[in-house]
Design goal:
heterodimer; A: alpha/beta; 4-stranded antiparallel sheet; 17 helices; 58% helix; elongated; B: mainly alpha; 11 helices
Amino acid sequence: MHIIVAGLSHKTAPVEIRETVTFPEQILSDSLHVLTGYPSVCEAVILSTCNRMEIYVVATDPEKGKDNITQFISDYHTLDRDTLQKYLYFHEGTSAIRHLFRVSSSLDSMVLGEAQIQGQVKKAYDMAFECQGTAAVLNRLFRHALLAGKRVRSETEIGESAVSISYAAVELAKKVFETLDGRTAMLIGAGEMIELTATHLVSNGVKHVIVTNRTFERAEALAEQYKGTAVKFSDFFDHMVHADIVISSTGAPHHIVTKDHISKVMQKRKHKPIFFIDIAVPRDIDPAVAKIYNVFAYDIDDLDNVVQTNLEERKKAAEIAEDIVESEVGNFSAWLATLEVAPLISTLRREAEEIRQKELEKYLRKLPNITEAELNTLNALTSAIINKILHKPIVKAKESANRKDGYLHVESLRYLFDIQDEEAESEASAPGLIELHSKPIGD
Amino acid sequence: MEQLTIILFWLALVCGVLSSLGYSAYYAAKADRWIHNFLGFGGATLAFILLLAVIFTRALALGVTNTAGPFTVSIIISAFIIGIFLLIEAIYAGRSRKVKALGMFMLPMAVVIQYAAWHTYKLTRPLTEQLRSVWVGIHVTFAVLAYASMTVALALALIYWLQERQLRNMHKKKPGKIFRKLPSLEVADDIGSKTIAFSFTFLTLVLATGAIRAEMLPQWAAWYQDPKILMAAATWVVYGSYLLVRTTLGWQGKRANIFAILGFVVAIATYLIGNSSFVQQILPTVHSYGGGLG
């Protein structure tokens, strides 16, 4: 069997194509059924996100498999095969395994290290599993891929630091306050950028949101969104006393928050640390505010600085992640190799032959006067028995290797004869085989 | 038994060094590796147990009255520094893994103190009559606990200072290891203040137990004029001020840490009186017996 992936992503296809070739959740079950109906497709998983569409299959033949997938996509989305072929990429074998592992570790993502892809891969797999699109190989492959992704997340810093301005604000705040749980945030202004940052703050635990804006109605609207309170622009300094985090983004041409204001606020709040983010240009907050004791104030350039440094860090982390992926690909490939039928057959033959020789030796001791001719006959007889017994399973195994679900039979053969991984076979599995064979003979 | 003590001593030192390396590697590494955690935490735990074993076997070998000297006191300080750090790590593990960075300061400190103790290993003198009292035993143990937690508090003040400096110079300094690996200001300040409250409690008990014992001895009637005791009272005042300004004025972080650092300096001065032969010549004190026990 062959693992193949065919796909298109933000790297290979323009958005017009990507938005056509998608498999949203509603049609996923149907499309999986259609796909597994193709003659050479044994198992299939469809991963469809906004940046990529990938189809993972286990096929009996690599060329037929690729052809089937292409046919499937072009039929399903009524797309011209030639146009489609321009944007599709294919990987097979180890390269396909590596590709999936890199995808689930978000090494292939548009934003390196983004966290969503893991969930998307898991969902794609779960869907395929439910629709019975997967069996032994893809089950193992996807579980392993998710594991590799998890390892990369926990063992590198690839997803640790913020790579967007609004998230950088959260990251900075978490350096002053350990957690944002139960904190109060004040928003000065009600623009889009403020909304984005506030959403991040709230999802990180900020409990209470105070909104102020020159037009009070807009403040109220935004406050309602976060179940917070709106306050008048004229007296927001009175409310700042209760805020731990202040985000400002107004269109004002000059500083609206000055050092004097904050000195007074700080005295009222007994110098409890306070955190300012100024995302307005021109700035709303006088930079001199940052000099006040326990006041931490940042502007848009500071945040951008954080983002740039973090992006560099992610690239460094990605190098370590590639090593992790490579070692996991090795692990998986080792398992996959045990599914191949040819080595299984030769192991089976060798072990049977070993048993025959051992048993022959044992019984020859009871026949001291045996002649050369008799010995030859005995040899021929025992060999013939062994070969006859093994003949049918071997032929069937060879046959089924080329069938859709053949490797399942191969798996069970391996299980029934208790054959271990190829590396360990010589010592480990020989005793198992003797037991299995000696029983029917004894009876 | 004495052979065993020496073997345990060096084993503990090796564990301390390995643990220091583990925690430093944890700080320096790009990725989170279990080996660093294992080495750091495992080494520290083992070093702590071995140090306690050193104290125990030495007491068995030489008898308690002969062991209560500078060597033992240094070993206990070293053990307590590690012990307090492990306690902090255990308590804060759920809140902030970055507390581990503290190990990078604490473990080397413990190793240095332990190694310095080696030079006083042979210094065994039986305790004088005045020192053979339960009160003195408690007094010294409390003092060691206070010193050990002061050291931890100092390291936390240092961490706070480094992190704040990074946060205040964001536009000039790219966020680096300090930003990523050291704990947040809130946590550093929180643990720091709790450590100092702990230290202050024991400092109070040190003064109290010392006074109780001194009152028992008629020849020490003028104990409150002793320079070491006066200095210890000054240490108590400084750490007390730390707690006072925090609660009344709300001085968290940088301003409070001034007292933490000042307190440590005064504490070191207190320690030197009676323990350094040079200081002893200038300021004679009742605490001058068997260098390090003062």
